[in-house]
């Protein structure tokens, strides 16, 4: 999102797949999420350096996301997994936050993929490709 807000002339549209929405990842939730992983940082660093840095910067990353998300004007397609990475009440809050973010502007589209896990592109690759092509065609018609 930060790149889109910094370079709106370079990005004509985007497909977000099961992102953590600005509504869902509050400052408090970011702090709590970071704490969940603090005991595992050494093993996380060995397995995924990207996720390691995400955990270390969770509060800053989520704050930047909340700040820039409102300024994004380009067409977006937001694809949500029906089997979210969250359980219980957080599952519904996650889905509601994604839907609100997707419906915030008229040039956005929300797609819920009921039977997909967090990595929607593994469970429904054709749907993901179809949505990318659809958005590409839509922004190039303008």
Characterize the structure shown:
It is built from eight helices and three strands; from the N terminus they run H-E-H-H-H-H-E-H-E-H-H. The protein is mostly helical and 142 residues long. The protein has a single domain (2-141), classed as Alpha/Beta hydrolase fold, catalytic domain (Rossmann fold, 3-Layer(aba) Sandwich), CATH 3.40.50.1820. A three-stranded parallel beta sheet has the order 1-2-3, sandwiched between helices. Strand 2 (76-81), helix 6 (88-103) and strand 3 (108-113) form a beta-alpha-beta unit. Keywords: Hydrolase. This is Alpha/beta fold hydrolase. One of its GO terms (molecular function) is hydrolase activity. InterPro entries: AB_hydrolase_fold.
